[in-house]
Design a protein that fits this description.
The complex is a heterotrimer of chains A (477), B (114) and C (428). Helix content of chain A is 31%, strand content 22%. With 477 residues, chain A is an alpha+beta fold. Chain C folds into three domains: 191 residues, FAD/NAD(P)-binding domain (3-Layer(bba) Sandwich); 133 residues, FAD/NAD(P)-binding domain; 67 residues, no CATH class. The chains are: A alpha+beta (477), B alpha+beta (114), C alpha/beta (428). Chains A and B meet through loops of A and strand 5 of B. Strand 23 of chain A pairs antiparallel with strand 11 of chain C, so a sheet runs across the interface.
Chain lengths: 477, 114, 428
């Protein structure tokens, strides 16, 4: 019998697991994908929003504000790639300046360090901007983060403190069972006293399993371009356009923590959370917006496009509560933007709600708030490089030449507390294959290392989910 | 009159072969092109390259080729002969893997030192 | 800072593929006392090791070799020189100033090291353009890979990468892989090319597609990829006009694999890091007639400078670069006039981009590619209003690199710059 089963190991589920790890509980996490951080967590804008955007009084507002403070602390403690970075909401017109002033007032009300910049100030703050920009909202309470590392790091701490992670377990039903619940998955059942619904794009489905049909997922997709680091070096802020009438924050241009540039996303409804394809018309639209903000972006330096689906619902706010239909289920639903920013605070909130629903939270004596260190060879200086190679010669063998990732780092990644099973999962852990050649040179090598470390055949290694096998057999057999 | 692109070298000369007149070739840049033009219409042949399994080497496959061109019609049958072949390192270019492929007189030979 | 602990070589060659091996041989021939070849892979030979097909060496060895044979011969030649070769070693950066060149690299065996060099020859080759770079929309399943990656899986590792294959792009590697996969029992359903003409060599269209009845769709592209259970399930192919898909012309091909052969990009991250001037048209360093870059003492050759279609030409270029590097290391400096070479009408780029007539010997070789297929044409070399030389061609194509040899006596008449242009007189 589990004390808590968390459904979903995106950044929200991971944050809940991280919070619960400090208590003496038996916690299980069930995740439908083959790795943690695979839904909205892996395909978003990777921004810790400052908190001027949500209106006072919304559920998300205090969680956004507390979430970025906790997130900064967690990133430092768990060595997650994180960089404080100013952000701008740029105005091209007087109408846009109205929006800027509204956001400014909201920012003040939320306690965010905001300023309104005039034309001269905004171009001094971000020289790459279109000269037609007449002003902007500015804040430095914002940051960029590696979202999948953030989620993975929290999940790793949870696992190291005893949480049990079940990957590729898709929840198909929840059965009430006296004082407990049985979470039914396609690969087994879990009896538990409490359930936390952190199922992201499928949170409404999980709610429906206990008879709560308040929410409808709306599945708004966002597509992005990732550009070479040569482009990332051109901007030093997160640049937003003004939100449109529908409240969509608009396309943004931002560096990533790795120094690339991202441009996107659109926000258009799609059939399902699995609609992750990109389309030419949307990408053209995003490109045009990006160039309007920063005319010097060279789209010849695009290295990848991707799409994510936001966990939006018919409610334009987070839905965080003890389920009115089932007192043993905590909902963390409708976690669209600023879901990443708020995650750590949502994790805390979930623990409070569990306590309120009768779960006793006794501190775990052995709790350790740490995870094994990560060697990032590319960011070491000559001395550091010498030192790590001396310790382990595999740090001296570069496998991914674009991102300077060594065999040592790949082996480390595969043997971390949560083992990646797919090439994409390895890429998210250590960046092998994430550079300009997109794994053209290194993917056969990474493939070989992954098969070796996992002790499986090359044919058994997948790119991502389902039957995404990379090779189909041996030649001449 | 038949038009062909010569595959003897990367130049890719545009050949014209006159079937009516003893397969006379024009448009060729060299004598080998003339021969190719004639052969292509009378007895087309290709050098075939493939790989076979090798044990004890830095990689699991060893590249091989036919040391002379074989009739086009025999290509698939010839490649099929390589299915069960397993070499043992060391091998060197020129080592015969399979002699007299399908009675053509061509041999499959190793093309890499492994 | 030729100080303690930093070992010094006359010539350091970065990359042990065809360019690097030939540069090393040539540098030794020219008298370099110490030469070091640094190769990142476990063996030398570079991409030739996976190019198991034949067609290499007709110019240099006067016989038709496979890629591994060609590489093997050069590896043997290097073994017979005083050049040292280190493998499994990656160069991380090059610091080059007017009188100092330091190469830092790492390997599992030796750790982190720095070497001083009298001259450096860049031979890093090129990489393939990816799906991201050409922005094919659609799902992102397994089964979409570049032709070269597929070639490595199939030819080196011995794995099949799919059974029903569509190839996007008609570059030579794509064509070669069409035949290769067919011979391994896969069905190659189509080769789809955006341009109205093929970008590969004509001989490869004949012996890789036509021989096996594989259809080539010119002026078509892939406008969508769909997935099923994580693997490619089909592609949508559309006709294009001027590169833009024409609505209503779409058709679907069921397949499990898409191979991309959509261009090669010189790999110049080290070059950029060293602050060496790059030509935006070639994506490679700007070079003089002897393959020296604009940074004294740093030379470059092969696909890192511009993408070649024949390894024989890579070898010839590398021989030139290796010899010049040896001479530079021995103290030779070239002074005097510099002529800038420009690509005019119909010419996408030229290599070299600068010629020093005083160092060109009896004639200067200029390589370039034309921008479209052409029938009977005249290649013109002019300087201002002056005509310097002209060369006739029966046909020209972007897939085939052109070479002209301009006698030095004619260059003497050029003032400041020359322009190479193409005028077509006949139909393509």
């Amino acid at each position: 019998m589990y004390d808590v089963i968390i459904i979903g190991c995106g950044v929200t589920g991971a944050a809940v697991a991280y919070q619960l790890a400090r208590y003496d509980l038996r916690v299980g996490i069930v995740e439908r994908f083959s790795d943690v951080a695979c839904g909205a967590t892996k395909a978003n804008s990777a921004i810790m929003h400052a908190g001027y955007d949500p209106a006072p009084g919304k559920v998300m507002t205090p969680l956004n504000l507390r979430g970025i403070r906790l997130g900064k602390e967690i990133a430092r403690k768990l060595d997650v790639e994180y960089r404080p970075l100013q952000s701008l909401v740029i105005a091209f017109s007087e109408r846009d300046m109205e929006t800027v002033r509204t956001l400014y007032e909201r920012g003040l009300a939320n306690g965010v360090n905001v300023k309104i910049l005039d034309r001269e100030q905004v171009h001094a703050a971000e020289p790459s901007l279109n000269p037609d920009v007449i002003g902007a909202l500015w804040t430095d309470d914002s940051a960029i983060i590696n979202p999948w590392e953030y989620a993975t790091a929290m999940a790793e701490v949870a696992v190291l403190n005893g949480a049990e992670l079940f990957l590729e377990h898709k929840v198909t039903g929840i059965v009430r069972d006296g004082d407990a619940l049985t979470v039914v998955t396609d690969r087994g059942e879990f009896r538990t006293r409490y359930v936390v619904n952190a199922a992201g794009c499928h949170a409404a489905d999980i709610m429906r399993m206990v008879g709560d049909d308040r929410l409808t997922q709306t599945n708004f997709q966002g597509q992005y371009f990732v550009l070479d680091k040569a482009e990332g070096a051109k901007v030093n802020s997160v640049i937003f356009g003004c939100p449109d009438e529908k409240g969509f924050k608009g396309i943004l241009v931002s560096p990533t923590v790795h120094g690339n540039l991202i441009v996107g996303p659109n926000s258009d409804p799609v059939a399902s959370a699995e609609t992750l394809g990109t389309d030419a018309a949307t990408l053209d639209r995003i490109k045009a917006s990006g160039l309007r903000y920063v005319p010097s972006i060279n789209f010849r330096n695009v290295i990848r496009q991707y799409a994510g689906v936001r966990p939006t619902t018919n409610v334009k706010d987070f839905v965080i509560d003890v389920s009115p239909a089932c007192g043993r289920m905590i909902n963390l639903a409708s976690m669209a933007s600023p879901g990443l920013s708020a995650a750590a605070a949502v994790g805390e909130r979930a623990a409070e709600l569990l306590a309120g629903a009768g779960l006793e939270l006794r501190p775990r004596a052995s709790f350790s708030d740490s995870r094994p260190p990560v060697v990032r060879f590319a960011s070491l200086d000559a001395e550091g490089r010498r030192a790590v190679i001396e310790k382990n010669p595999l740090y001296g063998r570069i496998i991914c030449r674009c991102e300077t990732v060594t065999e040592g780092e790949i082996v480390d990644a595969i043997n971390r507390p949560i083992r990646p099973r797919t090439l994409d999962a390895v890429k998210r852990r250590c960046r092998a294959g994430m550079g300009r050649c997109q794994g053209g040179f290194c993917s056969p090598r990474v493939h070989e290392i992954l098969a070796r470390e996992l002790g499986v055949k090359m044919e058994d290694i997948r790119l991502t989910e389902e039957d995404s096998f990379i090779i189909t057999g041996k030649t001449k057999e | 009159m038949k038009e062909l692109i010569c595959i003897v070298c990367p130049k890719g000369c545009h050949l014209r072969v006159d079937e009516e007149n003893g397969y006379a070739v024009t448009g060729n840049g060299c004598e080998r092109g003339a021969e190719y033009g004639r052969k292509e219409l009378t007895d087309p042949r290709r050098v075939i390259t493939s790989t076979v399994k090798i044990e004890g080497a830095v990689c699991p496959r060893c590249p091989v080729k036919t040391d002379v061109a074989i009739p086009k019609a025999l290509i698939f049958e010839a490649v099929k002969l390589l299915d069960g072949v397993v070499l043992r390192s060391p091998v060197a270019p020129g080592d015969v893997v399979l002699a007299d492929v399908l009675g053509t007189g061509a041999n499959f030979v190793v093309t890499r030192k492994l | 800072m030729r100080g303690a602990g930093v070992k010094h070589y006359d010539v350091i060659v970065i990359g042990g593929g065809p360019a690097g091996l030939a540069a090393a041989v040539s540098a030794c021939d020219k008298g370099a006392g110490s030469v070091l070849v640094i190769e990142r892979d476990r063996v030398v030979g570079g991409i030739l090791n996976q190019c198991i097909h034949n067609g290499f060496g007709l110019h240099y060895f006067k016989e038709e070799l496979t890629g591994p044979e060609y590489a093997g011969r050069f590896a043997e030649m290097v073994r017979n020189t005083r050049a040292e070769v280190v493998t499994d070693t990656m160069v991380l950066d090059i610091r080059a100033s007017a009188d100092e060149r330091v190469v830092s690299c790492i390997s599992a065996e030796e750790g982190y090291r720095e070497y001083g060099a009298g001259a450096v020859v860049l031979c890093m080759g090129c990489r393939e353009r990816t799906r991201g770079a050409i922005a094919i929309p659609g799902d992102r399943p397994a089964g979409v890979l570049t032709a070269g990656t597929a070639q490595r899986y199939v030819n080196i590792e011995g794995y099949m990468i799919g059974r029903r294959i569509v190839i996007l792009g008609s570059g030579d590697i794509g064509l070669i892989m069409a035949r290769r996969m067919t011979l391994e029992g896969a069905k190659v359903l189509a080769c789809v090319e955006l341009c109205p003409y093929s970008n590969g060599l004509n001989r490869n269209i004949v012996q890789c597609l036509n021989d096996y009845g594989i259809p080539l769709y010119l002026a078509h592209t892939i406008t969508g990829i769909t997935a099923e259970n994580g693997r490619v399930a089909s592609v949508t192919v559309s006709k294009v006009d001027g590169g833009r898909p024409i609505p209503g012309t779409e058709f679907t091909i069921d397949c499990d694999t898409v191979l991309l052969s959509v261009g090669l990009i010189p790999e110049n991250e080290l070059t950029r890091g060293a602050g060496i001037e790059i030509d935006r048209r070639t994506n490679g360093p700007v070079v003089y007639e002897d393959m020296m870059t604009m940074t004294p003492g740093v030379f470059a050759c092969g696909n890192v400078v511009h993408v070649h279609d024949l390894v024989d030409f890579v070898t010839a270029e590398a021989m030139k670069a290796g010899a010049a590097a040896a001479e530079f290391a021995a103290g030779k400096r070239v002074e005097g006039e510099v002529i800038e070479v420009r690509g005019g009408d119909g010419v996408n780029y030229t290599v070299p981009q600068r010629i020093r007539p005083g160092n060109a010997g009896r004639a200067a070789e200029i390589f370039f590619r034309t921008n479209r297929p052409r029938g009977e044409s005249v290649i013109k070399v002019t300087s201002g209003d002056r005509k310097i030389a002209s060369f006739r061609r029966e046909h020209m194509a972007p897939g085939e690199m052109e070479k002209i040899i301009v006698p030095a006596v004619l260059l003497a008449g050029a003032s400041g710059s020359i322009e190479v242009s193409v005028e077509t007189t006949g139909e393509a």
